[in-house]
């Protein structure tokens, strides 16, 4: 590798990192479907020692996040490896608006007596700072899902905490291009590479990045012992996907800002949540901690759940599907998901892709016009 991530800009790093550099090396990362290797190099068995394909993904994402990375089978596998570090009786602090898989994982562990869980509002910075003093795992996710509240990571990650405490930040919604939790003082940053890193809705993978060598080894051990290893094809596709992350993100978040403004001015839209809008409750924090406002917009349609479901059925260019961070735009009504009934019933979460902004707006506004009010 000819570059150091500190010497070139992230958008150059993600194109160049993780490639061979010797004469005759393949320019692209090879797909290495191997469980075992000839003994003698220190690399013997994939589950323990990794593969060249996983390591390419780790090199790219680690450099972007500013630490040393480990690839996992999914975002949840990476998150579970962090929770796996906790001693029995630990205190876990979670955001109120939190990825439901993480809330479920934390609740299951609490039920089994492994740890106790405290939930704090994403924007209640003072409560987070207070909780940091006693918590063993401070878990943050920002911008939050699906309300897009932005946590003050700069203050929370610098708050006094136990020396052994882990500050974990799920950085999936922001991407490492828009937010760098490790630079704020977090212990570990998580990417569901299923989303923006892969970018094409064609794989499941996760990445955990830390600059604490002891934690890196412990997470690697957890991956080895639980078998939470990524797939060869998935890591290959994730590397191929991440090469275009900077241009995909730049285009999609430009479009997201324009769509958010047009939605906010639309008479059939009651409320728009997008961190880039000055009306957003945590816009000021977003301006300080984020380099870009992201590609996800949540908005409430007039006419309740019925009208919102109709919008989902009417869109043609935008796909009625879950997930986010891909080249194609997707939208869903979040309160329709089991376990998410507490959310505003007419809230639609739109993940903006890289299609033309006017085509997206025409599709969306036609669907809104066709919904009953
Ligand atoms: C999708 C997602 C996850 C889980 O990732 P998987 O790859 O599906 O396991 C975790 N956190 C956030 C914010 C997500 O969007």
Automatic annotation (TrEMBL):
Protein's recorded name: Cystathionine gamma-synthase
Family per similarity comment: Belongs to the trans-sulfuration enzymes family.
UniProt keyword Ion transport, yes or no: no
Cofactor field: pyridoxal 5'-phosphate
Keyword set includes Calcium: no
PANTHER family assigned: CYSTATHIONINE GAMMA-LYASE (PTHR11808:SF15), TRANS-SULFURATION ENZYME FAMILY MEMBER (PTHR11808)
Organism: Herpetosiphon gulosus
Keywords associated with the record: Pyridoxal phosphate
Classification of source organism: Bacteria, Bacillati, Chloroflexota, Chloroflexia, Herpetosiphonales
Pfam family, one: Cys_Met_Meta_PP
Classification via InterPro entries: Cys/Met-Metab_PyrdxlP-dep_enz, PyrdxlP-dep_Trfase, PyrdxlP-dep_Trfase_major, PyrdxlP-dep_Trfase_small
Signal peptide: none
